[in-house]
Amino acid sequence: MKQKKIPMRKSLVSGEQFPKKQLLRVVYTKAGEISIDPNGKANGRGAYIALQNREAQMAKKKRVFDRAFSAKIADAFYDELIAYVEHQVARKALLEATYSAEQAPDYD
């Protein structure tokens, strides 16, 4: 059976290629609005960064979306981006966490 092709995208910050599902898409619309696109399907020009706290911090420091979209992006958006990435990383860590039987509550 044929192996399904995994779409790869490049992170603006690090320049590394990642599977599309491990990246966060940021969209710039023709109306000049910028937003985080968690589903990856919004209309507009998209740019990707890895879902890592370090990448979000570097995105703000380097102002990568200003260059990618050739527009002035407000600091408030970068702060929102950092908060969103931190939240997603924390959720991912909780999903991957395993617990032992000793930590489970006793319902007897």
The CATH homologous superfamily: YlxR-like
Q: Provide the β-strand percentage band.
A: 15-25%
End-to-end separation in angstroms reads: 50 Å
Helical content band:
25-40%
Strand order of the largest sheet: 4-3-5
Structural class: alpha+beta
**What is the number of beta strands?**
5
* H-E string: EEEEEHHH
Number of domains: 1
Q: Report the biggest beta sheet as strand number plus sense, adding barrel if it closes.
A: 3 strands, antiparallel
- Structural Rg: 17 Å
Mean pLDDT rating: 91
Structure description:
- The structure is a single chain.
- The chain has 108 residues and is α+β, with helices and mostly antiparallel strands.
- The chain has one domain: YlxR-like (Hypothetical Cytosolic Protein, Chain: A, 2-Layer Sandwich), CATH 3.30.1230.
- The protein has 3 helices and 5 strands; from the N terminus they run E-E-E-E-E-H-H-H.
- The strands form 2 sheets. Strands 4-3-5 form a 3-stranded antiparallel β-sheet. Strands 1-2 form a two-stranded antiparallel sheet.
- Strand 1 and strand 2 (17-19) form a beta hairpin.
- 17% of the residues are buried.
What are the salient characteristics of this protein?
two-stranded antiparallel sheet; 3 helices; globular; 108 residues; YlxR_dom; YlxR-like_sf; DUF448 domain-containing protein
